[in-house]
Amino acid sequence: MGDSMQTITKIKSGIKNSLITALELLNVRLEMAKLEFNEQKEQLIFILISSLFGFLLLLFAGFSLFFALNAWLPEPQKFSVFASISVGCLFVVIVLAALIIRAIRRQRGFLDSTLKELKLDIAAIRQSINAKHN
C-alpha cells in the first residue's frame, strides 16, 4: 500500500513539474511573440508613413512638372527650376519604394522561428512525459 502511494506521489510530482516547465516555456514563447508583434507594428507604421510621404512627393512632382511645361516657352529659367524639383521628388519616391519593398520582404518570416521553437518545446515535453511513464 505504501509503495503504491509513493508511486502515485512520484507521478503527481512528475506531472506537476512537467506542467510548470510547460507554463514557463509558454511564457517565454509568448514574450518572444510579443517582441515580434511590436517589431511588425513598427515596420507597418514605417511602411504606411513612407507610402504616404512618397505619394505626396509624387503628387508634388506632378504639379511641378505641369508648372514646368506651362513655363517652358516664355521663361526657360522657371522650367529648369520646376523640372529639377520634379526630378528630385521622383528620385526620393524611387528610394522610398525600394525601402518599402525591402521592408515587406523582411516580413515574410514573421513568427516563424517562434513557432518552430514552440513546436520543439512541445515535442520535448511530450518526450519527457513519455519517458517518465516508461
Describe the structure.
The chain crosses the membrane at residues 44-73, 79-101. InterPro entries: Phage_holin_3_6. It comes from Testudinibacter aquarius. Keywords: Membrane, Transmembrane, Transmembrane helix. This protein has 134 residues and is an all-alpha fold. The chain has one domain (2-133). It has helices spanning 2-70, 76-106, 112-133. α1 packs antiparallel against α2. The longest helix is centred in the first third of the chain and has 69 residues, at 2-70.
Instruction: List the helices and strands in order.
Output: HHH
The low-confidence parts are none
Residue-averaged pLDDT, rounded?
80
**What is the CA-atom radius of gyration, in angstroms?**
30 Å
Question: For the report, how would you describe the main beta sheet?
Answer: none
Overall shape: rod-shaped
Structural class: mainly alpha
Work out the helix count: 3
Strand content: under 5%
Number of domains: 1
Beta strands, count = 0
Terminal residue distance: 21 Å
* Percentage of residues in helical conformation: over 70%
